[in-house]
Each structure stands twice: as structure tokens, then as C-alpha cells.
Amino acid sequence: MSATMPATNVASATRIPSKRTILMCRPDFFTVNYRINPWMHPEDPTDTSLAVRQWESLYRVYLDLGFDVKLVDPIDGLPDMVYAANGGFVLDNIAYGASFAYPERQPEGPAYMKWFAANGFDVRKPQSINEGEGDFLLVGDVILAGTGFRSATDSHRELFRIYGREVVSLELINPSFYHLDTAIAVLDPDPAEGEQANIAYLPSAFNGEGLAILAERFPDAILVNEEDAAVLGLNSFSDGYNVVIASRAKDFERQLRERGYNPIGVDLSELLLGGGGVKCCTLELRR
Ligand code: ARG
Q1: Of 25, 41, 156, 280, which residue is the catalytic one?
Q2: In this model, does residue 3 exceed pLDDT 50?
Q3: Gap from CA of 83 to ligand 1 centroid (Å)
Q4: Surface-to-core class of residue 284, CB atoms within 10 Å of its CB (0-12 exposed, 13-18 middle, 19+ buried)
Q5: pLDDT digit string, tens, across residues 145-155
Q6: Which atom of ligand 1 is least distant from the CA of 101?
Q7: How far does residue 179's CA lie from ligand 1's centre (Å)?
Q8: What does DSSP assign to residue 114?
Q9: Is the pLDDT confidence value at 20 over 60?
Q10: What domains can be seen in the chain, in order of their start residue?
Q11: Residue 17 has what pLDDT?
Q12: For ligand 1, is residue 79 a contact (CB within 6 Å)?
């Protein structure tokens, strides 16, 4: 009998979901009245009640997945507060606060830090400009850290000092993908011992140095096309099996399915007008 050994196939891996704890902010005061990224057009109207309904559909998906979803109160006059991922970075029960690049969003930093403190996190006031989990992604034991448009490289050093984890800096080069979470999706939040967590990314968002790092560290990564990236398809949130993505990111959806993930599409078209998607609305809280 000629037994053919099954190839170790990333596609056939068993995906195990794990319940996440996250923080979200209802877009009660969402609008676009300033422009700090190319997606934003203050001259165009926005529909706040549609934004709320779309956000609620994401909220319900998370509840159905069994996630523990905490809420921070939205503040009138801070329309981008809905993008909770930018409110900080939380790991080992330590909340590293955000210090926003643009004055329009600066008051969000203290608002989120207040929530972290009131909810039992050890809050570290930031010394450097950083936009939290928008630019910092935990992949296994490593923190991938974006720079180029928002978070300063000084913040990467601060991250290392606070968490003692390896921090890998990646420079973003396309203004439409100005936060790392618009260009990279973390697919395996809790990889099993000895297993490499996988990611998906948009190659054209990175310079040559970054591409070399990504190719070396993540040889099995899903490469996402421009079309899917242009609906912020990468701006997604995974529990290890279920991956909540933009419903319009069809090729990414197909690739996820092929690899044994369960993509769940949501439509956040109104929040896309502010330049954010699924992941932007989601801040992971790791105790
Ligand atoms: N209008 C917001 C900004 O430009 C969108 C933030 C999106 N958040 C994210 N995590 N990518 O700052």
C-alpha cells in the first residue's frame, strides 16, 4: 500500500473559536465634520441613525458569538469615538492610553483612559503619539506596530518598555491605509502552543523592508487584493474561527473559507465614510 502522507495543510487546520472580551462605543454622535484621512468628505452628508443601526448589527454579531461586549459612553462632539480600537492598547491587564495625532481626536485619549481606570485596568499615560490598537496588533507573542501616518516610532519603544514583548515596527506607505488595522488582519488571536498565528495583509500598504519582514514571519499569510482592501476588508475581527469582515470583501471571504475559517459579513458602509470598519469599532480587552 502506498500511503501518501497528508501534507500539513494550512487549509485543513481545525479552527477553534475562543470567546473575546471587547470594548465598543455606540455612534450616537457619529458624523464626518473634519477630514483626517482620505476616506472622509465633510461636504457629503452622513446618516447617524443608519450608522447606529449598522453598528448595532455588528454588536449583535459579537453577542451571538458569545463575546463579552463592554460599552463606553459616546461623547457629543467626538464623532470618531465609535472607532474604539484607537482608544488604547490593552494587554496583561495594562491599558496603554492613546495620544491622538490630530487635535480633533485628542480628547478621546483621556475619555478612554477614564473608562479603563474605572474598569480595573492598570492605566499607563502615553508619552508618545499613538492610536492604540489601530496601529498595534498582538500576533502570538509579538506586537506588530504601525507607523508612517499616526503612531510615532517612539510609541513602539514605549510599548516594549511596558509589555516586555517583541515589538516589530512596520511602516505604512499608502494614506488610505493609515492605521495598521486597515492593512493587516490578525486571524488567530490565541494560537495553540507551538503554533504560528496567521495574518492577512495588503502587500501594497508596506515598503520593501516591511514586506520582507511579513514574508519571513508569515509565509502562509492570506494576501488580500486591492478591491477588498478598498472596502476595508482587512479591518476585521477574528475569534480564531469566526472572522467578522466587511460583507463586500468577497475574495477575502473566499480565501478565509478555503483556510477553514468562518467569515461573517457585516455592512458598515456608513462608518466607512469616516474611514473605519469592523476592527476600528472593536477594542480587545486582555486581562
Ligand atoms: N476617522 C477616524 C480617523 O481617521 C477613523 C479611525 C479608524 N480606526 C481604525 N482603527 N483604523 O482617525
Answers
A1: 280
A2: no
A3: 6
A4: buried
A5: 999 999 999 99
A6: 12
A7: 7
A8: H
A9: yes
A10: 2-284 (3.75.10.10)
A11: 96
A12: no
Q: How many whole angstroms separate alpha carbon 220 and alpha carbon 91? A: 26
CA distance 254 to 56: 25
C-beta 83 within 6 A of ligand 1:
yes
Q: What is the pLDDT of residues 114-144, one digit of tens each?
A: 999 999 999 999 999 999 999 999 999 999 9
Residue 252 CA, ligand 1 centroid: distance in Å:
21
Rounded Cα distance between 255 and 10, Å, is 12
Question: Whole-structure pTM over 0.85, yes or no?
Answer: yes
C-alpha cell, 180: 495598521
Buried b / exposed e along 217-246 (16+ C-beta atoms within 10 A): bbeebbebbeebbbbbbbbbbbbbbbbbbb
Q: Nearest-CA neighbor of 270 among 76, 86, 24, 83?
A: 83
Which one of 25, 156, 179, 281 is the catalytic residue? Answer: 179
Pocket perturbation via mutation, ligand 1, pick of 23, 37, 106, 178 by most ligand atoms within 8 A of CB: 37
Is-catalytic flag, 156? no
Q: What is the pLDDT of residue 46?
A: 97
Q: Say whether pLDDT at 199 is over 50.
A: yes
CB 149 within 8 A of CB 178: yes
